[in-house]
Amino acid sequence: MAKDPSKTEKATPRRRQKAREEGQVARSQDIPIAATLLVTFLALIAYIPYSYNLLSDYFRYTFSDPIYLFPEENGSFISYTIKVIALLVSPIFLVLLATGIVSNVAQFGFLISTKAMAPKLERLNVIKGLGRLVSLKTAFELVRNLLKLILATVVAYFLVMKIINESFNMSFIPLTHEVYFLFKYTLMLILAFAVVSIPVAIIDFIYRKWEYEENLKMSKHEVKEERKMYEGNPQVKAAIRKKQREMAMMRMMAEVPRADVVITNPDHYAVALLYERGKMNAPKVVAKGKNIIAEKIKKIAREHDVPVVEDPPLARALYSSVEVGEFIPEKFYVAIAKILARIYREKNLLS
After folding, report:
1. Which of 3, 113, 188, 306 has the most other CB atoms within 10 Å of its CB?
2. Domain boundaries, position 258
3. 261-264 and 308-310: which strand pairing?
4. With left for phi above 0 and alpha for psi between -120 and 50, is residue 131 left, alpha or beta?
5. How far is CA 139 from CA 28, 133, 203, in A?
6. Is the overall model pTM greater than 0.70, yes or no?
C-alpha cells in the first residue's frame, strides 16, 4: 500500500514512546540468527574438548562395565545417562538463550509489551491483506529470502562436495579420526552459515530501521494536534496565565491594609511597605503598581487609614528596583526611615 504523502514530519518523542509501549520497534529477526550461529561456533570450539572427554568416559563406562544390564542396577545407569545429557546440553542451551536475549535487547533495549501480543482485527481485513502483498516490504522480504537461499545453497554445495570427497577415505581411518572429521565439518558448516548471515542481518536491520522511521512519520496536522494536547491550547494557556495574574493581584491587594505606608509618584506609581519592628531587619514591599493598579492601591490604603506619602523619585526607584515580597535595599534605608519616623510621631507610636 502506498504511504500517506502527508506524513512528512519526523516522529515526536511522545509518538515514539507510544509506539514503543505498543511493541513497535525497529527489529531484525536475522540478527539473532546470525548471532546465534556465530556464538554456537565459538561455544563449540571451547566446549568440544570437554564434551569429547565426557562422552569418552560415558562410552567407556557403558561398554566396559555391563553391570547396568542387571535390573537392580538400571536406576544408577539411567541417572548417570541423564546427568551426562544435561552436562552436554545445558551449557549450550544457556549460551544460546543468553545470545537470543542480548541480540534482541541490543537492537531496541529491554521491552515487555502485552499490547504487541494482543490480536488485531484489522489484520483480518482482506483488502488490506491484498495491499500488503504488493508492498515494498513484501518485495524486500522476497529479495532477502532469495538471497539467503542462494547463499545457503552455494555454501552447502561446496561443503557437501568436500565432505563427499573426503568420505571415501573414511573406511581406512581410526574411529577417533572419524569423530574429528564429524566435528570439523560441523563447525565449518556452522561458521559458513554464520558468515553468510552477518551481511544479510546488517542489510535487514538497516531496512527495518528505515521502515520503522517511515511508519512513525506524522503529518504537520498530527504534530500540531499533539503539541496542543500535551502543551495545551494557546487560548487555554493564555486564560490560565490571566487567571494566575488575577489571583496574584488579589493576594497583593489583600496585603495593602497591613502596610505601614504607601509611597506614590503621585499619579503613576505606588509602592506599599510593611515594617514590623523587632521582626524585620528592613521594610518589605508588599504591593506595587502603576497607573490603574497604583490608583487601586492608594484607594485601598485610604479606606484602611494607611498613610499615603508623595515622593516621586523614591516611588519610581522602589518600583523599578524591588519586587513584591522583597526587602528594600540598604540604599533606601535613610529615606524610608525618615518617612516611617514621621508617621510614627503622628500616630504617637515612636518610642
Report:
1. 306
2. 250-346
3. parallel
4. alpha
5. 16, 8, 14
6. no
